Amino acid sequence: MSAPRNLLRTLLILGRVSNLPTVWSNCLAAWLLNGGALSAKLFPLWAGATLLYTGGMFLNDACDVEFDRAHRSERPIPAGQISARHVWLLGAALLASGWALLLPFGMATLLAALLLVLAILLYDALHKRTALAPLIMAACRLLLCVVAAFATGSPPGAQSLWHGLALAAYIVGLSFLARSESNGSVVGRWPMLLLLSPLVANVVSDPGRSPVSWAASLGLLVWISWCASRRSQGVGRMVAGLLAGIVLVDGSALAHPDGLISAAFAGCFVLALWLQRKVPAT
Fold first, then answer.
1. Which domain does 14 fall in, by range?
2. Residue 58, in any domain of the structure
3. For residue range 194-208, what is the model confidence (pLDDT) as tens digits?
């Protein structure tokens, strides 16, 4: 392992922690859309989701070690900052701990979380081997929304499912763009159309939404357009911006948010952008 003073940064890079605010906003949106209220019950949900995401990212690097040695030698394992064995052990422990933290939410939540763990493992094992990897990644985010919805004590309703599916479509478009960054392939404009799916879902699911919600949707559209305008500067910059935009997808899904909820999503968005300055998002 690396020296203690460098170990924390190594772990933060492995866990791609700059994306954690998007995980928290996914949970918050699905929770609220399924009738949940702001309460202390959200904290174990956020904690469990955090460990599941971080564990998945650790195992992602463990599975990609040969690819990274050839193409991304700056990643922690090929750079000699931590051993692959330690990453395997830490990733497995984080996944198990994340699932265990969801025990208070009941059997339905645990079963949904188990499906999420399996989807995470499937993505980690296959994402460099199949063109369908973006669909698996999208399934992970959709299942996270399902987990958060079940955690309210009720089965996922129409609003949370609409949002989960729209978010999944956004992730598919984003993931295809990110893959072009890692393998140098040329991707057309069609993934950008998928990024607009949440805006369509917002109109269809509840056209009577508040002016604040419409403003959030407009903000998402402006952000997607701005990120797309940076494509000429490199796909990586665009992808990082669109990853932070996941928070805007979540925030715009709420038809009648109050000031506190809007501030929570705004805070997650700003935090995601700030963390990207400290830890790479991809």
1. 4-276
2. yes
3. 999 999 999 988 889
